[in-house]
Amino acid sequence: MSELSESDIIYDWNALQKRAPLSNVAFTFFDETLRDGIQCPSVVDPRIEDKIKLIHLMNDIGIDHVDIGLPGAGKRAYEDVVELGREIRDAKLKIKPACAARTHVNDIEPVVRASQQLGMPIEVMAFIGSSPIRLYAEGWDLDLMLKRSAEAIDLGVKNGLQVTYVTEDTTRSRPEVLAPLFRNAIEHGAHRLCLCDTVGHATPDGIKNLIGFTRNFIDSLGVKVGIDWHGHNDRGLGVTNTIHALEFGADRVHGTILGLGERVGNAALDQVLFNLKLLGELEGRDLSKLLLLCRLTANACHISIPYNYPLVGSDAFRTATGVHAAAIIKAEKKGHAFLADRIYSGVPAGLFGREQEIEIGHMSGESNVIYWLKKRHIDPQPELVKKILMVAKATDHLLTEDEVRQVIKETAIDRS
After folding, report:
1. Domains of the chain by range and CATH?
2. What is the DSSP string of 183-247?
3. pLDDT per residue as tens digits for the range 367-378
4. Tens of pLDDT, residues 315-348
């Protein structure tokens, strides 16, 4: 096997006419787990100790920016922001802090105060709704939005903070509204524009059109301003859309670990990262702690990871089907784990700290049982294999470890 390459045993249609690299600009990642993610109605706001651990893990896998909260939301939110900022500062982490704020001076002021208290910069993510439906519901007009935006951005910039101007529901906003909002934000010192798919409305075509419009508008002003993409998952397109956003010209993309967020959640940043890794876009980046980050996020937020969740779900690399198990076992016998890790898996488990798992159930064959026993250093005697398989075929579920061991115990007793 050592003389074979991946292309010798896998024909990759994904690589045909592939644009490489995905983007012609350097891009970065912005984690929203500790702000947008914990707005999910079903999660618990993590303890500060857990938030600190999460930020360290985000830093370790190379996430560039993290939203550490909305300090204008109240005393506890402000205190958490200060504590997390202090940890980033004192531990000399590379990850850079940001805070969300409405385009209102009462929200910008706590970010300024936290930054001054810590003696470190905190990026301001100043947001305002921009879609016709939001303007109608709020009773806003463009003049009011321009005034509020300018005042908020001015306060941040005056205090030496970078400000990203965030238009909520950008993907359903009119260009004749976005253009003056963008111009106003840039003229008052915003260094980035964040395009938001707040309700998960966008398709890849919509993202291409919107980012193209934004890039052309920025270029027409002759300025250098970054473009963020912030997507939600209401149509189940969150991860796909985020990768498309990079292809279409965004240079920073947002997401949350495990896709946490309101309704069905945000784009899952963990899935974006491991997909980009598999696409060859993150050469040299160590994602070995990604699994730990996902599990700690679930524990800290008091949620369960779905069994079928990509990469980290309990069933992600688990099979009890006889045909699949037999193929994996045959691949292993070829003498190289590379084969076994890919023959029935589009994601190589070993690349991310997991392994293929073969279980025993009603759709299993003898190979499942033999593999299971050998894995636990138990002699797969024909009589034992037959007995375990007979029990498995009579059930409607995968046999648990205890159930298999009970059969082993009973078989040993019968022999005696």
Report:
1. 21-301 (3.20.20.70), 318-415 (no CATH)
2. HHHHHTT--EEEEEETTS---HHHHHHHHHHHHHHHHHHT---EEEEEEB-TTS-HHHHHHHHHH
3. 999 999 999 999
4. 999 998 989 888 888 888 887 778 888 888 989 9
